[in-house]
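Assemble and predict.
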Amino acid sequence: MSPQALFDQQGDRSEADRLGAALRGFVREFSVTTALHVESCVRCGLCAEACHFYTATGDPKYTPAHKLEPLRRAYFREAGPFAPLARLIGWPRAPTLDELRQWQSLIYDSCTMCGRCTLVCPMGIDIAELVKESRHAMFDAGLIPERLALMDRTAEQWGSPATPAEDLPDILHDIAEEFGVEIPCDRPHAEVLMTAAPAELGEHTKALAAAAKILNRAGVDWTLHRGGFDASNVGFNNGDLRLQEKLTRALVDTALQIGATTLLLPECGHAYGAARWEAARWYGQALPLRVVHMTEYLAELVEAGRIRLQPIGETATFHDPCQIVRRGGLERAARTVIAALGLELIEMKDHGVEAYCCGGGGGVVSNVRATALRHKVFEIKKRQVEETGARRFVTSCGQCRITLEMGAQHVNWDRATESLVELVADRLAD
Amino acid sequence: MELLDFARGIALRWACALFVGGCLWRLVGVLLLPRRRDLAPPREGAHPPAVAALRAIVRHLWPRPNFAGSTLFATVNSYVFHIGLAVVVFGLAPHILFVRRLVGLSWPALPNNLVFGVGVLTLAALAAVLARRLVHPVMRMLSGAGDYLSWLLTALPVASGLLAASHLGARYETLLAIHVLTIAAFLAWFPFGKLMHAFLFAFSRGATGMRFGRRGVDS
Ligand code: SF4
Ligand code: SF4
């Protein structure tokens, strides 16, 4: 790695303190699965073949297993079954602070925690999860990209990285006016607590209006609520476990407080990862409500006949957001909705569980430092979309959409990335 | 004769003790770590954990078609030397005799010439692994001393066994002693490096299968 690798630091602390925090963080919570996954790597390098950062650049430093090097060394020295022996003979070496600074860009700028590498790994190692564990340590040590740290501080204060909670009613009022749709806010009781992605309160307001239109049409008893409205979990991406818990609790506690039986997540991938699969860990038991992604909810409404759609009658291809498909299991739900829209789906070469990441997951979309790299990754998706010859290009994650739109803008690509929920709202039949 | 006695006696005994003790220590040490229970309700229709684990163990035996192109050489080559090693270790008559003397178990042997041929092929595949490790930028970057040592201690018993079988280079007893010593070194190193994947692979794949099977994903 180049010695001039980019890094940021948060807080004013001694080098020893920072390094100590990182090393403790790396080994703090080794569960049996994490340990098995660190232990079983055979250094075969096959994971590189699945990672968009490697395939788009050919640079070996983007090899997934290489991103785990600090975690690996910390584990074998501090937590593995032969840790005392490892320390005694000084092998492997402990990561140094300089190395952690160098690895910052590998752990944050060039991993979207998409999980594609797991598919090709002969040991089936969940590398994305290990990168997430590495981020916990990097966050503890104040070693994360400053842009993500800024979002972290904002979300800590506002409950959202983009919108203060007290502004929510006004923003919803404006969206309701602009799109001519009713958007309930802060209702004391509702069956469904609906939540938003950050962009849906900014540049993607149409997606929020679309969701409102559909819920109203289906006669759902729902509301948004200042207590918990932004489902994107910045803590989940940054490695800030405390914030992850706080944001998770804001959503779940608000839902329970208004008597909701369903927590409805927006078109956002990481929101699904954080709330559907990780929320329960903060409560020590299964949540007493359903956590449902918008795509899944749309599929249910369609299948139950609660909404009917006018067919579009064109060809389309679909970008599978990693967190809701490969790591979330909603491959079929998206296709149910696409079929109900009367779209003839032409799959990309890599699709479903095997789909390439958009290149912006895991906070990479917000990490300005990674822009050039993201644009290189975009070429893969652009090529695969073009190969299908499909007329429409659809996805169901706002963050993917922003990433793909930025990529398209960079190369003047004339394809719009459309939102599934918006398409459904536009084609609602009476 | 003395070297052979040493190799067959104290060296092999210590190596076996290290092998068994070390493997158990490492496996138990890992498997006794706290288990983080997955409390999220499984997706409707998800496979039960044991089924999901088995499916992942089987699925990762061979790359998915979309990845087959880029990983074909490594995969085929790995199969050649893994199967080759198994054939040589368990198929050669003297090996079976050795095991019978040790624990009383025996099974039919494969023809010597066939095993010899497989041994040569195995060594060639191992040479290809090393070449790839030294040449491919990704492999070169990932490789450390432990990886090269694991390679060496896997290749040496095969090479020394072939020499002993063809009576090349020294007296047969000396060749045999060297062969046994390389096996002892292999066994002694086994628990500490990545050779442990021979046991860990099933647990590692299975754990991933359980995590994602619950989510309704065949990963
Ligand atoms: S999780 Fe995705 S981005 Fe990260 S290393 Fe694996 S393939 Fe690359
Ligand atoms: S593919 Fe798996 S076993 Fe091979 S180097 Fe990558 S993480 Fe390790």
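Chain B is about 75% helix and 0% strand.
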